[in-house]
């Protein structure tokens, strides 16, 4: 006799949970070589990402979708928090503050500059397969304005940090408080409608239909807890194994910290995004996942950096910025500014995705100074020093953000959507 669909779904959930836990135990206990370690960690991350994704889809019917996604995003960036904390702690001992800003700026730009276009193009792929025509835009709901406004507010604080030229415990207090406020506002938003449960896939639907209520709550909390533990458990072995591979391939430490490490630690978000992007209906949830992860990084993660640094030093201490650090942070801010300008109309278009991905890719072609053509003093002009290419890309983001707002001025819905969201708060 064939097992029932519910039994098969339950077995799938249990199997993924057992595999994720076993793989984490193996890489933490046994001294494996880099290749099997990376393979086991990769599988554990995939399994954990699926489990917490299904948990989030089910949880949105009992708490607000935004809060469920924000909580999942927080679990997913646990590895990134651990890496950044270690880097900040070591910077307090050896003075390598450049690695602190490299990791923070690289992770933010990966989430926004690469993550958002990834969601659009994956959704577009599945949309073409199903409907035979390209996707025009990813459309957010009015209540999703909370995440967009939070991202704008959190990233704007970095203008203050750039103006001061250092990161301090004051920033920890401000950004930490902003993170708590963000979660509080999301907790007041309404949950999903009952009739939408029928559109869920089998695993999250099974979780939603679990009875009694206590069992359902325990199952959801268990999935979230297991996902968080797995993400935490495999973070260090995964990074160390991949670091050995990167060193063998000749990748510099700065490049590893800025790009390779964030890509690996943000891998859960990418898996969740691809999973949710399979339908146009769930794609906004994938985009919210990326936005929430970015908010978490701009607030909670950066708030943790001066704390870890000061604890390492043994006294309250500021982390100084040199011109390179300022350029990298400004580029991260500019990337986010363009992203917020795109979402201010509550939809994300193909043009937005192409521009964002193109400018993100442009950062890797040339990182040195560019001698901008100009007239010198001999021809009635003036001397103009070479400009860092990353600074030019940053100003391109800013200019495009202004152009986006100017072009869609009448379609901008932040104010109206924010009023609707506040009115809907419980």
Task: Give structural notes.
There is one protein chain. 74% of the residues lie in helices and 3% in strands. By secondary structure, it is mainly α. It has a two-stranded antiparallel sheet. The chain has 16 helices and six strands. The longest helix is centred in the middle third of the chain and has 36 residues, at 213-248. Residues 369-386 have low confidence and may be disordered. It has a domain at 65-190 and 260-366 and 385-424: NCX, central ion-binding region (A middle domain of Talin 1), CATH 1.20.1420.30. Keywords: Membrane, Transmembrane, Transmembrane helix. InterPro entries: NaCa_Exmemb (IPR004837), NCX_ion-bd_dom_sf (IPR044880).
């Amino acid at each position: 006799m064939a097992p029932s669909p519910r039994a098969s779904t339950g077995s799938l959930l249990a199997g993924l949970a057992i595999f994720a836990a076993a793989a984490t135990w193996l890489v933490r206990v046994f001294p494996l070589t880099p290749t099997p370690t990376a393979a086991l960690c990769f599988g554990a991350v995939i399994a954990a990402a699926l489990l917490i994704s299904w948990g989030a889809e089910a949880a949105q019917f009992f708490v607000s979708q935004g809060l469920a996604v924000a909580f999942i995003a927080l679990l997913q960036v646990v590895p990134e928090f651990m890496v950044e904390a270690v880097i900040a702690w070591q910077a307090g001992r050896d003075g390598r503050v450049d690695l602190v800003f490299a990791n923070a700026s690289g992770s933010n730009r990966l989430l926004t500059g690469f993550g958002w276009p990834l969601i659009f193009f994956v959704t577009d792929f599945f949309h073409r397969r199903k409907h035979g025509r390209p996707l025009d835009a990813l459309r957010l709901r009015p209540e999703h304005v909370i995440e967009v406004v939070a991202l704008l507010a959190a990233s704007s604080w970095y203008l203050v940090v750039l103006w001061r030229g250092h990161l301090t415990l004051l920033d920890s207090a401000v950004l930490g408080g902003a993170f708590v406020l963000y979660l509080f506002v999301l907790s007041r938003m309404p949950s999903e409608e009952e009739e939408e449960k029928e559109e869920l896939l089998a695993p999250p639907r099974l979780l939603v239909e679990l009875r009694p209520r206590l069992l359902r709550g325990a199952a959801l909390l268990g999935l979230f807890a297991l996902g968080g533990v797995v993400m935490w458990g495999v973070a260090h072995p995964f990074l160390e194994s991949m670091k050995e591979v990167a060193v063998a391939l000749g990748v510099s430490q700065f490049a590893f910290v800025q790009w390779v490490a964030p890509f690996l630690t943000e891998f859960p978000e990418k898996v969740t995004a691809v999973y949710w992007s399979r339908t146009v209906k769930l794609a906004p949830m994938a985009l919210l996942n990326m936005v929430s992860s970015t908010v978490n990084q701009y607030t909670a993660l950066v708030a943790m950096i001066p704390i870890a640094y000061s604890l390492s030093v043994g006294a309250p201490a500021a982390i100084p910025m040199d011109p390179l650090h300022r350029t990298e942070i400004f580029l991260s801010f500019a990337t986010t500014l363009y992203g917020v300008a795109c979402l201010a109309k509550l939809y994300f278009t193909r043009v937005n995705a192409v521009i964002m991905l193109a400018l993100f890719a442009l950062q890797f072609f040339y990182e040195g100074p560019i001698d901008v053509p100009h007239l010198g003093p001999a021809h009635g002009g003036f001397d103009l020093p070479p400009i860092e290419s990353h600074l030019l890309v940053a100003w391109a983001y800013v200019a495009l953000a202004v152009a986006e707002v100017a072009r869609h001025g009448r379609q901008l819905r932040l104010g109206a959507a924010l009023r609707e969201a506040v009115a809907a708060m419980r």
